[in-house]
Amino acid sequence: MIEIHAYHGWGFDSSFWDNLKSELPSEVRFKAADRGYFDLEIIPEFEADSTIKLILAHSFGLHWAGASTLAQADYLVIFNGFDHFVAKEGIDQKRELKVLNRMITQCERHPKEVLNAFYENCFHPQKHDKKTPEFINKERLLIDLKSLADCELNLSLHDLKVIGFSGKEDLIVPIKRTKAVIEKLGGKNFILIENSGHALPVVNSSECWSFLSSVVPIFGQHAERKESE
Question: Is 115 a domain residue?
Answer without folding.
Answer: yes
